[in-house]
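Sequence, please.
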């Protein structure tokens, strides 16, 4: 049977016939590849390391009728840090699920493998993992040709002012004149600037991007709403992502000093 070799990143793994696994990779040459790895559950499996989530490997596949089969794998970068920190794990998991569910097997999207590898590399060291997730989402939108319109009003084409809003059905921002009265997704000038920065900045410079809590909420809501509207998919990992982001936000907040009444209660 025909074989082929390519670099790939393990994104989703499911059990298959006892000790086997079905692994969804995103590969450089063929895009998404769903393949069987036999005997992964057995001690000493030579393929086990390569099917760990988020691992970048050099892979050899055997073509099959329904599923390909992994014959050989050599790990290039295991991305250990993504599995050691819960917030990074949540961001990496959402990236993986969004990539798999928005792509078709053996239909590579131009540049997406490189963006995926760059995102996972940046996630390992980023001070703000969520911003790396947003950066990748913008590249995923661009690969599918569904990038939100950020440069002008999606309705009239006018230059955007300081007050704008996002319109999901029209996949872009509207100026203050075209904003409908019932709009529920306002976007500040700062939020718009953050999105434009995400679209043009390389991943290694994302730590320079700062924003207010209000802008963060707006950008988060816009990007996830855009993904829902454009891809129409449900992702299990988003709930986990929101839980981890909420927990990290609480942990980062300074402790509240005791009140005078609290002081008296200790006497």
């Amino acid at each position: 049977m025909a074989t082929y070799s390519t670099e790939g990143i393990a994104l989703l793994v499911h059990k298959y016939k006892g000790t086997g696994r079905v692994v969804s990779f995103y590969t450089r040459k063929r895009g998404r590849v769903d393949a069987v790895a036999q005997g992964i559950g057995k001690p000493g499996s030579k393929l086990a390391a390569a099917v760990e989530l988020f691992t970048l490997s050099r892979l050899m596949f055997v073509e099959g009728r329904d599923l390909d089969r992994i014959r050989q794998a050599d790990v290039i970068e295991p991305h250990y840090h993504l599995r050691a920190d819960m917030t990074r794990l949540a961001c990496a998991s959402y990236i993986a699920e969004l990539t798999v569910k928005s792509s078709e097997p053996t239909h590579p999207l131009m540049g997406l493998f490189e963006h995926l590898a760059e995102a996972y590399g940046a996630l390992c060291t980023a001070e703000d993992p969520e911003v790396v997730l947003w950066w990748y989402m913008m590249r995923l939108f661009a690969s599918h040709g569904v990038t939100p319109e950020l440069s002008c009003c999606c309705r009239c084409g006018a230059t955007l002012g300081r007050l704008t809003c996002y319109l999901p059905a029209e996949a872009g921002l509207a100026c203050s004149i075209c904003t409908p009265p019932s709009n529920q997704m306002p976007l500040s000038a700062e939020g718009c600037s953050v999105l434009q920065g995400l679209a043009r900045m390389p991943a290694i410079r994302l730590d320079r991007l700062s924003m207010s809590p209000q802008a963060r909420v707006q950008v988060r809501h816009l990007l996830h709403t855009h993904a829902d509207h454009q891809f129409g998919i449900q992702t299990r990992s988003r709930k986990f992502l929101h839980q981890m982001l909420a927990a990290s936000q609480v942990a980062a907040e300074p402790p509240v000093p005791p009140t005078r009444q609290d002081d008296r209660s200790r006497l």
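The helical segments are 81-84, 86-101, 112-123, 129-144, 189-200, 213-231, 237-252, 260-265.
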